[in-house]
Amino acid sequence: MRRLPALLIVLALILGGLWLGSESLMAQELRRIAAGQPMLELGAVRELRDPRRIGVQAAALELQTEAGKVALPRAELWLNPLRPTELRLDLPPRATLDPGSGPLELGLADASARLRLQPLNGLGMASAGVAAGRLTVEDAELARALRADAELAAPEADAPPGAAAAYDLDLTVDDLDPALFAALPLPGRLSLTATGRVWLDALPRPSALSADLAPLPVGLRLDDAELRLGTLRARILGRVQADAQGRAQGRLALYTRDAEPLLQAAAAAGLIPPKVVRLAGTMLKNISELPLPEDAGFRFPPPAEGELRLPLTFADGKTSLGPLTLGPAPILPRR
How many C-beta atoms lie closer than 10 Å to residue 95's C-beta? Predict the structure, then answer.
């Protein structure tokens, strides 16, 4: 028993050394990654030295994205010692985006991201998520809140061809203003809650990303999606996947009491031809009553009282609303 205090002191020193060493190693690795990525610029990196978190704080980050250059005054990358396979990223409340026409100030309230890895599976992604409170652009509110989570799902027999990994999705977008980033004449702000599944052609892991082989989607299933656009409401269910040419095939069903104004909004935004709205207006009830077969085991329930069920079918490279052709089917990214 007299040796116990000495043993505890030795153990504390060992754990302390591992903690300090882990943070130093993380800082070195972050600098190495930044040096090899032309799209990333990194200023000073320092260890957190916080007993509750093992991690680093990076200052003066600049990241080149498709939307433009994003500049962050700082960011913290850390993990909880009790959950060593889950990385956390905390972002500052302010950032700058330069799309090429001048810098815009972004507000990022409580913005964070997480990534849980599988050490025994090549550091494949087990789950990931992003969350933020109020988002602003030049102090104009872009959205009240945003949250997205993905969780690795078990393999399944009805997965689309070419699927190597599947993730269950849970998405919430609260009161988004599309006018701040797209010149679309939509009738109000947009809110969305959705659950479903996405299939990828590869498991996300560092080895794939470093070889420029980022996983691409080969299919999407919406189990329950609630869309609000101003005063308009709709539910969206269904499943689509890539055909041999990389275009979407499958079916989505739109359940709504606001069918005509939603179609008018889609036409005003250039998503469908205006003449389709005129033709569909007299046919909506008949289109809603069309029987829908199961698609890859997906069953479409009948509409509720007062609702219309509008099927969007993707086949042979075309998108159709019932018997009306709306245009080409969307293209899913491919290599």
Answer: 20
Alpha-carbon torsion 301, 302, 303, 308, what sign?
positive
Residue with tokens 């302390």: 16
Phi-psi region of 265 (alpha: psi -120 to 50; beta: other; left: phi over 0): alpha
Burial class (CB in 10 A: 0-12, 13-18, 19+), 67: exposed
The CA-to-CA distance between both ends of the chain, in Å, stands at: 65
Q: pTM for the full model?
A: 0.87
Query: Which residue type sits at 103?
Result: P
Q: Cα dist. 168→136, 150, 206, 241, 262 in Å? A: 29, 5, 21, 16, 28
Amino acid 82: pLDDT: 84
Report phi then psi at 99, rounded to 5.
Answer: -80, 5
Burial of 147 (0-12, 13-18, 19+ CB in 10 A): middle
List, for residues 198-251, the tens digit of each pLDDT value. 999 999 987 766 556 788 999 999 999 999 999 999 999 999 999 988 999 999
Residue 219, number of CB atoms within 10 A of its CB: 25
> For 64, which DSSP code?
E
